[in-house]
Amino acid sequence: MKRKGEGYMFHLLLFRFVLYPLDLYNDSAHYALTVFRKQFLYDEVEAEVNLCFDQFVYKLSEQIFAHYKQLAGSIFLDKRFRLECEVLGFNFHSYPRNNRYETLLKQRHVQLLGRSIDLNKLINQRINANMHKSVELAICRFEGNDITGIVVSIKL
């Protein structure tokens, strides 16, 4: 019988192994060139790797950004509000659960088709772009409101 949250914990334990399936592409590319001796097969594998890895970095950076955004929001959540929620019976985690992004963020040399890729740098570039968009959105909302928006912003 599964307890609540067991699937989540299992997911976290496996998260650090997410780069292992990408090694299959290395093997496929090696076989395409050495065993089958077909350049077009290698080109197909390379195109697939580029697409998959780009999507992987995009989704991973979105998840990391969302996690730390939730963590920042939870830190600034009013303690009285938390107490009122507990009194009313709302059971929520005041802080997001622990994650396993640290191991992925430490990856500086991911070998993929003979290339060494700095995963940390790619994720940082995407997160910086997300941060820039969020700040732009906040500024646009602030500038689009009347003077009462300033009072509301100060109280936050």
From TrEMBL:
<keyword id="KW-0732">Signal</keyword>
<protein>
    <submittedName>
        <fullName>Cytoplasmic FMR1-interacting protein</fullName>
    </submittedName>
</protein>
<dbReference type="GO" id="GO:0031267">
    <property type="term" value="F:small GTPase binding"/>
</dbReference>
<dbReference type="InterPro" id="IPR008081">
    <property type="entry name" value="Cytoplasmic_FMR1-int"/>
</dbReference>
<dbReference type="GO" id="GO:0030833">
    <property type="term" value="P:regulation of actin filament polymerization"/>
</dbReference>
<dbReference type="Pfam" id="PF05994">
    <property type="entry name" value="FragX_IP"/>
</dbReference>
<feature type="signal peptide">
    <location>
        <begin position="1"/>
        <end position="24"/>
    </location>
</feature>
